[in-house]
From TrEMBL:
One family name in Pfam for this protein: Glutaredoxin
InterPro entries: Glutaredoxin, Grx-like_ET, Thioredoxin-like_sf
Domain Glutaredoxin residue range list: 3-61
Source organism (scientific name): Pyrinomonas methylaliphatogenes
Record protein name field: Glutaredoxin-like protein
């Protein structure tokens, strides 16, 4: 499974999402949209012109998780518990 998470340094929801992934040993690539303009443009394209973070890309499926929702993240990752 390939997981990318688009974030900013100041985003509390991003910190919660990354902690969830780390606690479960799920590897991910983090992309800070404030450091990479093309990433910010991608996030805005996915989210109707809004810079919503965290935005995830999991095996090619993209979605925003703002506000953070652990139940939805579990479902998107295919985790049952």
């Amino acid at each position: 499974m390939r997981v990318r998470i688009y974030t900013t340094r100041w985003c509390g929801d991003c910190h919660n999402a990354k902690r969830f992934l780390k606690e479960r040993g799920i590897e991910y690539e983090e992309i800070d949209i404030e450091e990479k303009e093309s990433a910010a443009e991608y996030v805005m394209k996915i989210n109707g012109g809004k810079r919503k973070v965290p935005t995830f890309e999991i095996d090619g499926r993209a979605f925003a998780l703002s506000p953070y929702d652990e139940r939805r993240l579990r479902a998107e990752l295919g985790l049952n518990s």
